Amino acid sequence: MTRGRIRAKLQRSHLYSFSCLHPSNTEAERPNSVQGSRIVHCNQPHLHQKKPLKYCSNFISTTKYNVVTFLPKAIFEQFRRVANLYFLLAAALSLTAISPFSAVSMIAPLAFVVGLSMAKEALEDSRRFVQDMKVNRRKTSVHKGNGLFGYRPWHKIRVGDVLKVEKDQFFPADLLLLSSNYEDGICYVETMNLDGETNLKVKRCLEATLPLEDDEAFKDFAGIIRCEDPNPSLYTFVGNLEYDRQAFSLDPGQILLRDSKLRNTAYVYGVVIFTGHDSKVMQNATESPSKRSTIEKKMDYIIYVLFTLLVVISLISSIGFAVKTKYQVPDWWYLKPQNTDSLFNPGKPALSGFYHLITALILYGYLIPISLYVSIEVVKVLQATFINQDIHMYDEETGNPAQARTSNLNEELGQVDTILSDKTGTLTCNQMDFLKCSIAGTAYGVRSSEVELAAAKQMAIEEEVDLSSFPMHRDNQQSSRKNVGRVSEIELETVISYSNGTGQKPVIKGFSFDDGRLMNGNWLKEHNTDVHLLFFRILAICQTAIPEPNQETASFTYEAESPDEGAFLVAAREFGFEFCKRTQSSVFIRERYPNSKQPVEREYKLLNLLEFTSKRKRMSVIVQDEEGQILLLCKGADSIIFDRLSKNGRMYEAATTKHLTEYGEAGLRTLALAYRKLEESEYATWNNEFQKAKTCIGADREAMLERVAETMERELILVGATAVEDKLQKGVPQCIDKLAQAGLKIWVLTGDKMETAINIGFACSLLRQGMKQICIITTNSDTLAKDGKEAVKENILNQLTNASQMIKLEKDPHAAFALIIDGKTLTHALEDDMKHQFLGLAVDCASVICCRVSPKQKAMVTRLVKEGTGKTTLAIGDGANDVGMIQEADIGVGISGVEGMQAVMASDFSIAQFRFLERLLVVHGHWCYKRIAQMVCYFFYKNIAFGLTLFYFEAFAAFSGQSVYDDWYMLLFNVLLTSLPVISLGVFEQDVSSEVCLQFPALYQQGPRNLFFDWYRILGWMGNGLYSSLIIFFLNIIIFYDQAFRAGGQTADMAAVGTTMFTCIIWAVNCQIALTMSHFTWIQHLLVWGSIVTWYLFLLLYGMISPLISGNAYKLLVEALGPAPIYWAATLLVTIACNLPYFVHISFQRCFNPMDHHVIQEIKYYKRDVEDQHMWTRESSKARHDTKIGFTARVEAKIRQLRGRLQKKHSSSVAS
Amino acid sequence: MASKGATSSGGAKDGTSDSSSSSKKNSKKPKYSRFTQQELPACKPILTPGWVITTFIVVGIIFIPIGFASLFASEWVVEIVDRYDEDCVPRNYTYNQLAYIQSSETNKTCTKRLIVPKQMKSPVYIYYQLDNFYQNHRRYVKSRSDKQLRSRASEGDTSSCKPEAVGGNNYPIVPCGLIAWSLFNDTYGFSVKNKALEVSKKNIAWKSDQEHKFGSDVYPKNFQSGGLIGGAKLNASIPLSEQEDLIVWMRTAALPTFRKLYGKIETDLEANDEITVVIQNNYNIYSFGGKKRLVLSTTSWIGGKNDFLGVAYLTVGGLCLFFAISFIFLYVIMPRPLGDPSYLSWNRGQVN
């Protein structure tokens, strides 16, 4: 409750983008004005044991229940289900005389159902508990007084404690950094678990606390921190440290957050500020909601419908009863009407009627299948086991199988409409490979990117298919043959170049470049050697990474801010320019030339660093080499660089542009490299200005710095361009392609920069050349900031409406749009007045990419999509930053990769790699959806068919509440006699095999379009139930009306009629399920036919036990029914008559209006797929939802382009 | 309650130094079996036109002969039904039937003549049929004690028999309950050509009832001794297992119109024989407007006269043949090659 109040205080406007390299020392002098009221006495945790300074402990708990609350809470959860509540009431009433049944037959099934569900809850919660305990018991080093540190478990850490955290450990709470092993008090932090970014962030302590550098120093350390209250904003912190009678302002740069990890730093000291649930990461965690699938929600409506029906027929019964009791019963002397009790009082028919209403409600309770929930539960657990056991979703590398963590969403997997995906770690491995480059107008690098390879392969197939499928080509065989030739040429070329690349060299992480012209120093033989030299130097120098010597390979690995930078450095190393050391002022490069054996170590004095921001889209360094030459080295987005080229720097512009376009098409991330030579004097004047800007204080400092930097980065000379392949996770483009073909929309929500996000979009085929990109960004927020929020919002609104207009006016049906929006804009776009425009636009776009979004925003976007479109959403992610969205979405999928477990813990399903999502959705989702849908429909059918016969009988029994069946029959109907076949339907049914599901992704659309659980189908099944009930009841009644039913002359009594009727029901519903199934393994056969056999066995055994228990059913089968031909004749007649309409319906439907899976079943049945493989491949390639994104769409675009080129070549050759 | 979903810290995977990780990894690998991979061999029947037509024809071919057989069996049964509740009330009581039946003074004997339409082979079963008598009323059905009926030891077990559980002096009534209390008490005597016909009351109840449900040591006690007399009285010297009329009556009927076996005549009745029936019209059905019928009937293998079963079989069989023909017709008019890919939705979409 307190947490909620705190969250209400959260001010979103405080969010601003986090830039780790901003020097913060300059502004650290003046204390902040602090709004919050939290006071932390550093190194004096004992002061925090009493109120009001007592804060929550560092103990965390994510469980739903504890030992005490489990029973009441879990029971409460169970009886929140309407049906369960009804059955509880019925069970309670069954103890009184009102109930038509014995108490045991009401209470036993309920206890079973509720007990089973609760056991499942307990198991799931205990797993969470174990996980929590593991975290709480981790140990960390705490100052115990007198400068001594000792280990203590996490949950015993208190606010004010001084901690010493060592390398590669997680921070146990939110800490204020006091000092580190580095002299300047910096440390490197990996925030993977918070925001999903894998690059390291630098935190720097206050200068005042620098002297606290060893254990001893904390003997007398004391200070007071006044800071904000706990809040979920990861990127803000406001507070002051009072130390040494001075106040210092604190900012996020000094705060180490729980769940981030210390890297590259031996140790740090820190003071605990926020513990346990107060910490930012826990504040960010949203309550884990209990999710229910669409089918289950709809099932509630059906239950309501049935309830209404139940109430209506109960009312009819009780009114009928009251009327009969009032007007007729007084004359029925055989009932002794003068001898009354409250349940039966002809004198007070209204009261008796009321009591009877309750009796009737219980009696007709069979309309509402009590076993439905428990059957569904059982089915889902079994389905989940199949998901867990699927060997095709087992990842050999990490050793993780897929896991259904909550089983109640299986069928929802088959109805997903939108996938919201995290990027880092989900789509990509966050690893860049240097693949190609263009230097001085020459393209290097012969290996092909994944996109190119796939394009070639696909094209070969398509051509073949085209030839065989279009007869008109036959007239023109010559040309088509030529085509084939050409295609195979293209294919060969790429395949060869690819195979050349792989076999020969050991794989270097981040480097897939292959071209003999540059490797091993061969670049010296090229023209323009000096340009090549510059190119490599820019790669090696223009960066912000930290080298780390690697003992094994005797070379360096790099901790870079972004993975591309790492790839550049690795490339530079491989080219012979090894970055080996960085000091505060210099960069050292070991340059190796083939003519000299020893590498030369050169020092470059780092004069200035103009860092990369998403707005500038470039970074530059100004260095002085050993000869004293001052150089500005710049790398950046091509458009930005090309704008700033000098006149004589444009020598290679045309060639480079061409190469850049090619790289872009191949799905590579490109950067252009340029340099500029500076005169000493020119630099000096500029540097003055720059320093001035740097030291100035105030809001416009950033803008000033930028402006000054701008004046330097001009008159550049183009050197070349690089192309880096962002290594996607295995199979991601193919998976996205298949998912797109299955008609799913994919949104990418990432914490990354816009450029990175766009590049990834290209790499995984969400974006492609020729797609119209709509970027919604906040323009010039600095200048507009004063005009207030309104202006910004209006601006965004304008952008949104313009874009929508553009899409509306677009005439080309093949045109595809992509929406790209950044986090800052998103904060506005997600506000209530604008979100619908935003959503409207986003839905019209083929792909949507949101960049720089915070975990909270991810959750908000997810909620918007979920609630705005009303369709099923699936969120997939791997890090703690995805937890919000995973919990918010209808289905949350966690990647159980190598990173943290938060996402997995919060998820409903976990898979080891993104590519398994295809199988999870297209195979398991499809199956589970159909299974559950059919199962639920059938369930209602069978209970209506059974329940209504009870009602009809009432009309013949003066509405007295007498049932025609024995209590035991009714008890066993749901529990034993009809439950196993329906479970086998729910567990084993397959309309088509898994291979077919994968080959025909279009089949998946049956789920999102909800073909198997729409109201027509549900009502159809209910109608079928109604029909069956009528047939079963009236045929039996008429046949057994008043005649002798066997040659012995006896007439049928109630037991005989009831038993015959019940036999008919058992036969009819079990034959019905056999007709519904399309996949019979021995299990289905056993369960369906076994159920019927069980009924006869039961009847036999029941008839053999003491007549005190079996009553009138004693020896019924053996003596009366078995020998009577009319019993068997009636069973046969009624069974056939019940199933006839359904049989006619499905025969008719299959013959004249077949659904896709029908046709495919037939193809498989006649093995036409083997005979006519052409047709099979052609159909499976056609079986896709019309999509504008994905690999295939992209490959098609590529093919169109290649064809155009071939056409041109062809025509030109003809012309000549 | 704020139970939070995200756990802290990704610790579960921190065992990088775990040397046995490879073996641990493999242990998580699902084991392959055709069952777990859902690849069990299965038969996947599909409804080809051949199957559809065959099914319909087979059902038709089976049903129609059964239908005819039942109809013939039913035809063969000879049945005489005679309603006597009104005829057996003297004229002067026509408007006061209730007084007539409730009075102990009135003469309840009544004679009726029946003509045998066709030869009736023995055994000829005698039934009484009651209309509008709700033997299936819950209050009525519940009002019995199987324990008491079965053994003398449980004589006092009458809790379920209300409101006819104990007599005036609080002694248990045997047999207790409304069902036994309202036992039918009309009697019939038959004679053909002034020669009395033997009515056998043996084996009219179910054998198992006689042997196991009604005790041979249980004798009627305190029965019909209260203020209100319901129906028949029982001979207190005959054990319940021998009281077959009671046993038949205690098997409650499913519907408010029912027949119960009264006895059987073990001699053949010739066509056009006139049977004289002497009825003791004791049972009160007049107060609730019921009817009483006397039924004489032979049986066949399907039991009594039951045209409906045959008709229903013929109807369903006929329908199936009709469907078979219509489907053949439809397949000829609108043939669809099975597994024709042009019927796939994406192909159909393109055509349109």
UniProtKB/TrEMBL annotation, chain A:
Coiled coil: none
Stated name of the protein: Phospholipid-transporting ATPase
Region forming the signal peptide: none
Catalytic activity: ATP + H2O + phospholipidSide 1 = ADP + phosphate + phospholipidSide 2
Residues annotated to bind ATP: 422-424, 565, 612, 635, 669, 750-752, 852, 858, 881-882
GO cellular component terms listed in the entry, alphabetical order: plasma membrane
Enzyme Commission (EC) number: 7.6.2.1
Organism superkingdom: Eukaryota
Biological processes per GO annotation: phospholipid translocation
Domain P-type ATPase C-terminal: 904-1154
Cofactors named for this entry: Mg(2+)
Gene Ontology MF: a single term: ATP binding
Pfam families associated with the record: Cation_ATPase (PF13246), PhoLip_ATPase_C (PF16212), PhoLip_ATPase_N (PF16209)
TM regions (residue ranges): 83-101, 107-123, 301-323, 353-374, 939-962, 968-988, 1018-1041, 1053-1074, 1086-1105, 1125-1144
Domain P-type ATPase N-terminal: 40-107
Protein localization: Membrane
Swiss-Prot/TrEMBL keywords: ATP-binding, Isopeptide bond, Magnesium, Membrane, Metal-binding, Nucleotide-binding, Translocase, Transmembrane, Transmembrane helix, Ubl conjugation
Active site: 422
Record's keyword annotation contains Nucleotide-binding: yes
Enzyme class: translocase
Record membrane topology: Multi-pass membrane protein
From TrEMBL, chain B:
UniProt-annotated stretches for the region Disordered: 1-33
Annotated compartments: Membrane
A single cellular component GO annotation: Golgi apparatus
Main location, first listed in the record: membrane
Membrane-spanning parts: 51-73, 311-334
Protein family (similarity comment): Belongs to the CDC50/LEM3 family.
Species this chain originates from: Carya illinoinensis
Pfam families, alphabetized: CDC50
Amino acid composition bias (Low complexity), ranges on this chain: 1-11
This protein's UniProt keywords: Membrane, Transmembrane, Transmembrane helix
Taxonomic classification: Eukaryota, Viridiplantae, Streptophyta, Embryophyta, Tracheophyta
Identification of the protein by name: ALA-interacting subunit
